[in-house]
Design a protein that fits this description.
Radius of gyration of chain A: 15 Å
Strand order of the largest sheet of chain B: 3-5-1-12-9-10-11
Shape of chain A: globular
Largest sheet of chain A: 5 strands, mixed
Largest interface: A-B, 59 and 60 residues
Order of helices and strands of chain A: EEHEEEHHHH
Number of strands of chain B: 28
Structural class of chain A: alpha+beta
CATH class of the largest domain in chain A: Alpha Beta
CATH architecture of the largest domain in chain A: Roll
Number of helices of chain B: 20
Helix content of chain B: 25-40%
CATH class of the largest domain in chain B: Alpha Beta
Oligomer: heterodimer
Structural class of chain B: alpha+beta
Number of helices of chain A: 5
Number of domains of chain A: 2
Strand order of the largest sheet of chain A: 2-1-5-3-4
CATH superfamily of the largest domain in chain A: Beta-grasp domain
Bound molecules: FE2/S2 (inorganic) cluster
CATH topology of the largest domain in chain A: Ubiquitin-like (UB roll)
Largest sheet of chain B: 7 strands, mixed
Strand content of chain B: 15-25%
């Protein structure tokens, strides 16, 4: 028994028939073939799967694809505009905020959510906001710097 | 030659694909006709398998096949091999799927292959396994007690090996003469690696060519290929291609040959379709090789002046239910040999008992033996300093191996190549402003605040080598590295390295070396790794070996390239070869720099071979296999400053200073990143992480809800500095930096917490130092 869903991902509209239990993360990765969104756990802990749903960060492993019916999703693939990296992407690159890169897409989108709510976060606020995203490689030091870099850049741009 | 890239904190060339979601990890791959595997795993730690009923699963729509351990063994599949053998060691078989008995929770008993992931998992639940549960033991010390349930018939007392190093009599004698001795009992708890990318494997068989391809999350694809092909599956080595694409962290856990990749490689031929398996996190917890798990008794003896006379160490190392690929080496040659630390210790004796238990196998996890050794040494140093009433920094300083004693022969086999331990200590003391800090500590104590300062002066041995020596110690492999440098006709360069990057940034750091040596723009250099189809046999990445061993192999190939290019250039310049200088990418005759041939022109001529030295082969490529003369020995001092709240037991890290010496640094940005990550894992062990098994050997900490990985707000920012003592025996002067943080941090943090708790008379608490444990210890101390 499949049900139809219409989801806009990175500005493109997709209509698909899916099993009701299909997770949004698997919809994105396996149905749409956008593999930048990762799966790191099965208990909604790691944050590797974070995407923006209607502008807010969600762990896409906790959402069914059918719940995203009618929603606007942004994944890491859709963050750069016109070949221009988003300041967060730039920050992670400049500040060496990634090593293996597996946590990075989720980390960037979680930080995106933070900077929307709080354009000028302290280090402590950054650390707190990223609590739901594990990184095993970087020790977070450079991730904090990366987010700070992006915050400054976005403020200058604004 | 002018250095242009070496030593520059370049941002990484691999990052654009990762920050835009264009990385390619194993689970991202798909093939036409792909089907999925789900593993049926034992819920029991120890049980006899009475029967396995496949019928219900097979009837489930979408299921293609169900296989058991018996199916594999009947078709000729062999035991997974162990790559390090110790004399007299027990080596019970380890089949990819259990055949008669299961010996740890999570051991695979059957595999379901189905058309999609969800169906495979549904059907895995329909496989009915009849078990007869048997008594189990998880704790290494308990497994040694008489009457403990035996894991294998081959080892009724659960002893896999007894190993020792050093001079027992001489050490006992030192303790008899000692002015003062101290003894500590330490548990180095079991850790679960938890790379954020779960392990995964996808295999494809082509019946027309009889070739297999395996994509697997591997730190060493050639080792995977050799062991799978020659030892387990009986596939001709050249008919199995192993590709390890982008890999999301390893920390040791992706070195080993595991049951799952073996199963999918075997199953793909059975079902005639490509097969993929990706671990769910709960599978990672029970199936990725764990780390550490030592129980240790350690003693230190000093004379009247506080100079160390000897060290005695006795360790029980829990190996888990089966021997993982390099398991026997970790608590022996990578542990006992490191017990001299940075100190002049006239005699050391260490005894290790390797024990089987009904738990997930234990193997190398970041640092692998060396963090365990450092923890022993640095805890002993602290406890002794306190016993003597000496400042812990000064007590260490007094016992350092002085700089003029290198190369230094320790009593536990290693010969340290170079070091200046006092230099690193002094720098760290300066950065932290030690004197002021001690005063501050005093004042705060009066106000009821307890801060502590903890040291860890560590030594690491990395780039384990040379092959002949490791072979004599039991390694079933050589520990050299390969590099093939291929110069194309346009002068662009592709380097095939036997090292493997899974976060370490080789595509940048190695390219920095190449661009400098050949005087070409870094954009002209491509680094290829992780594919046995194109890369020469290589040993892979672990033990901080990529820069010192893998990087050196590249340098050797570059030297060969330059030699040949010089011959071609001399011919073009109509000069004698000895007169030709190569500088900044140009060949010219000594003294005539404006008449030159560029590297690109020479490369082109190497392929045209029109105007060419007689007798010289066309083409410009070279491969090398670099076997180091010795290990390299990074060292340093880490200092942690913590604040312990006596009311809640909570530890806050106020500052963390790391001064490391890894020789010359290729890329400081990457090197610092490695240190950060290592420290985070070390702090994780000290304060948060630990595998918990219950009395029945059930893993209680089997999810990220129950196992505390460090989060962003658990950690401080780090203060990183370094000293530079080049490695004297490799061409780059580099050591290794990947594990220093993990090796140092654990002891630094625990020492800091114990320093904070000094006023309570608390001498030791086992890790992880959770608020509860600290709170209890304080309460008990206050009551006493
Ligand atoms: S995959 Fe881990 S939180 Fe979603
Ligand atoms: S960069 Fe590897 S997990 Fe974050």
């Amino acid at each position: 028994m499949k049900v139809p869903v219409t989801v806009t991902v990175n500005g493109q509209v997709y209509q698909r028939e899916v099993e009701p239990r299909l997770l949004l993360v698997h919809f994105i990765r396996e149905v749409l073939g956008l593999t930048g969104t990762h799966v790191g756990c099965d208990t909604s802990q790691c944050g590797a799967c974070v995407v923006l749903m209607d502008g807010k960060a969600v762990k896409s492993c906790t959402v069914f694809a059918v719940q995203a019916d009618g929603a606007q999703i942004t994944t890491i693939e859709g963050l750069a505009r016109n070949g221009q990296l988003h300041p967060l992407q730039e920050g992670f690159w400049e500040m060496h905020g990634l090593q293996c890169g597996f946590c990075t897409p989720g980390m960037i989108l979680a930080a995106y959510d933070l900077l929307q709510r709080n354009p000028n976060p302290t280090d402590e606020e950054i650390r707190h906001a990223l609590e739901g995203n594990y990184c095993r490689c970087t020790g977070y030091h450079n991730i904090v710097r990366a987010v700070r870099y992006a915050a400054e850049k976005l403020r200058v741009q604004a | 030659m002018a250095t242009r890239y070496f030593g520059v904190a370049m941002k990484r060339r691999e990052d654009p694909r990762f920050i835009t979601g264009r990385g390619t990890y194993v689970d991202d791959l798909a093939l036409p006709g792909l089907v999925y595997a789900a593993m049926v795993r034992s819920p029991h730690a120890h049980a006899r398998i009475k029967a396995i009923h496949k019928e219900k699963a097979l009837q489930h729509p979408g299921v293609i096949a169900v296989f058991t351990g018996k199916d594999m063994v009947d078709s000729g599949v062999k035991s997974l091999p162990c790559g390090w053998l110790l004399p007299g060691m027990k080596l019970p078989p380890h089949y990819p799927m259990a055949v008669d008995k299961v010996r740890h929770v999570g051991e695979i008993v059957a595999v379901v292959i189905a058309q999609d992931r969800y169906t495979a998992e549904d059907a895995a639940e329909l496989v009915e396994v009849e078990y007869e549960p048997l008594p189990a033991v998880a704790d290494g010390a308990k497994a040694l007690q008489p009457g403990a349930p035996a894991v294998h018939d081959e080892a009724p007392d659960n002893v896999c090996f007894r190993w020792s190093i050093g001079d027992r009599e001489k050490t006992d004698e030192a303790f008899r003469r000692a002015h003062r001795t101290v003894k500590v009992e330490l548990v180095n708890q079991r850790l679960i690696p938890n790379a954020i990318e779960p392990r995964a494997a996808m295999a494809q068989y082509n019946p027309a060519t009889d070739e297999y391809t395996l994509w697997v999350t591997s730190q060493n694809p050639h080792v995977h290929r050799l062991l799978l092909a020659a030892f387990v599956l009986g596939i001709p080595e050249h008919k199995l291609r192993v590709i390890s694409p982008d890999v999301g962290g390893g920390f040791g856990s992706k070195i080993f040959v595991y049951p799952e990749e073996t199963i999918v490689t075997w199953a793909t031929k059975q079902v005639g379709r490509p097969v993929k398996w990706t671990a769910r996190r709960r599978e990672s917890f029970v199936s990725d090789a764990h780390g550490r798990d030592h129980i240790t008794e350690a003693e230190l003896a000093v004379d009247e002046k506080g100079k160390i006379l000897g060290m005695r160490v006795k360790t029980i190392a829990n190996l888990g239910a089966y021997l993982s690929t390099f398991a026997p080496a970790i608590p022996t040659y990578l542990y006992g040999t490191l017990l001299s630390g940075q100190y002049e210790i006239p005699t050391i004796y260490c005894e290790v008992t390797g024990v089987f238990t009904h738990t997930t196998p234990v193997d190398a996890y970041r640092g692998a033996g060396r963090p365990e050794a450092t923890y022993v040494v640095e805890r002993l140093m602290d406890v002794m300093a306190r016993e003597l009433g000496e400042d812990p920094a000064e007590f260490r300083r007094k016992n350092f191996i002085p700089p003029d004693k290198f190369p230094y022969q320790t009593p536990v086999a290693l010969q340290y190549d170079s070091g200046n331990y006092e230099g690193a200590l002094n720098k760290a003391l300066e950065v932290i402003r030690y004197k002021e800090l001690r005063q501050q500590q005093e004042e705060l104590r009066k106000q009821g605040r307890y801060i502590g300062i903890g040291f860890s002066c560590y030594i690491e041995a990395c780039g384990i080598a040379p092959s002949q020596v490791v072979g004599s110690l039991g390694a079933q492999a050589g520990l050299w590295e390969s590099a093939l440098v291929r110069v194309h006709p346009t002068g662009k360069v592709t380097v095939y390295t036997g090292s493997h990057t899974h976060g370490q940034g080789h595509e940048t750091a190695f390219a920095q070396i190449v661009a400098d040596e050949l005087g070409i723009p870094i954009e002209d250099v491509e680094i290829i790794h992780g594919d046995t189809g194109s890369v020469p046999f290589g040993m892979g990445t672990y033990g901080s070996r990529s820069a010192p061993v893998g990087g050196s192999a590249i340098v050797l190939s570059l030297q060969k390239i330059k030699e040949k290019a010089r011959k071609i250039a001399a011919h073009l310049l109509e000069a004698a070869e000895e007169d030709v200088v190569f500088e900044d990418g140009k060949f010219y005759v000594k003294g005539v720099p404006d008449r030159f041939k560029t590297f690109q022109e020479v490369a082109l001529q190497a392929y045209l071979a029109h105007n060419y030295p007689p007798g010289l082969e066309p083409g410009l490529e070279a491969s090398s296999f670099y076997d180091p003369k010795n290990f390299t020995f990074p060292f340093g001092t880490h200092i942690a400053v913590v604040d312990v709240d006596p009311e809640t037991g909570k530890v806050k890290i106020l500052r963390y200073v790391a001064v490391d010496d890894a020789g010359r640094i290729i890329n400081p940005l990457i090197a610092e990143g490695q240190v950060h990550g290592g420290i985070a894992q070390g702090i994780g062990q000290a304060l948060l992480e630990g595998a918990v098994y219950d009395e029945n050997a059930q893993l209680l900490s089997a999810s990220l809800l129950d196992y505390a990985l460090p989060r962003a707000d658990d950690l401080p920012s780090f203060e990183i500095d370094h000293t530079v003592t080049p490695c004297p025996h490799n061409p780059l002067g580099v050591k290794g930096i990947g594990e220093t943080g993990t090796i140092a941090a654990t002891a630094a943090v625990v020492n800091a917490v114990m320093d904070a708790l000094t006023p309570f008379g608390i001498r030791h608490i086992d890790m992880p130092l959770t608020p509860e444990k600290i709170w209890r210890a304080i309460r008990e101390a206050r009551a006493a």
